[in-house]
Amino acid sequence: MITKDNYKKSIKPYQPKPKYFRNCIKAFLIGGLICSIGQGLTVFYMEVFGFTSKEAANPTVATLILIAALLTGFGVYDKIGQFAGAGTAVPVTGFANSITSAAMEHRSEGLVLGVSTNMFKLAGSVIVFGTVAAYIIGVLRYLIQSFL
Amino acid sequence: MIMDFVWAFIVGGAICVIGQLLLDLFKLTPAHVLSSFVVAGAVLDGFNLYDRLIEFAGAGATVPISSFGHTLLHGAMAQAEDHGFVGIAIGIFQLSSAGIASAILFGFIVALIFKPKG
């Protein structure tokens, strides 16, 4: 007799195993490459515009976001993403990709109800969790600093 | 100079490998992974550890999404020094504004120009 549990067991040999090691290597190479491009941009902004290394982080991130948004528009970013997995998702370019692709997907529903409402469908969680966490930690740190 | 690039590559790549392992081994969705990274970045910055990572790895630490948590907390703490508790709310998006604003702007423009493929 087939139950839910033994069905799962019986199909297990036929399911593809995730290639853990290979996926990690791909994520490492592409993720490292994106960060190296970011390092190149940081050096560029430091040399050409005289930013300090900390100030250069903002224009670097903005430039990477522009590149990622354009590559998403051309449909290239998602192809790299299928190969690299977390290598393209974890850098800030993945954040730009999720915003741009959600905006493009809902373009046909109009600019207000489609593009603007759905833009943060995936990226929203990043902003919400980041803000809540930073707020709580900020309050804690401020309390500790002012009373110690 | 060359070593800056090497460390950016290694540290940035290693952060992505952690993300890949969370996806494969723990079966988290990408949204969960990214949210965890942002929270981790804010927590590490709470102990002043993220700044050390940036000094060491440069873009290897500023490009992954965990740096978003770090810039949120940094902006909040900078304003908190001047304005107290209210400053946390004033400053929280101050440094991360460049990333959010450009992502919204470029995302919107690209959605206007390009048609989705497939």
SSE blueprint:
The complex is a heterodimer of chains A (148) and B (118).
Chain A: H1 4-11, H2 20-49, H3 57-73, H4 76-84, H5 86-89, H6 92-105, H7 111-118, H8 124-147
Helix pairs in contact in A: 2-3, 3-6, 6-7
Chain B: H1 2-25, H2 30-46, H3 49-57, H4 59-62, H5 66-83, H6 85-91, H7 97-113
Helix pairs in contact in B: 2-5, 5-6
Protein model, in words:
The complex is a heterodimer of chains A (148) and B (118). By secondary structure, chain A is mainly α. Chain A has one domain. Chain A contains eight helices and no strands. Chain A is extended, with a radius of gyration of 21 Å. In chain A, 44% of the residues are buried. By secondary structure, chain B is an all-alpha fold. Chain B contains seven helices and no strands. The longest helix of chain B is centred in the N-terminal third of the chain and has 24 residues. The interface between A and B is large, with 80 and 76 residues.
Q: In a nutshell, what does this entry contain?
A:
The complex is a heterodimer of chains A (148) and B (118). Chain A has helices spanning 4-11, 20-49, 57-73, 76-84, 86-89, 92-105, 111-118, 124-147. Chain A is mostly helical and 148 residues long.
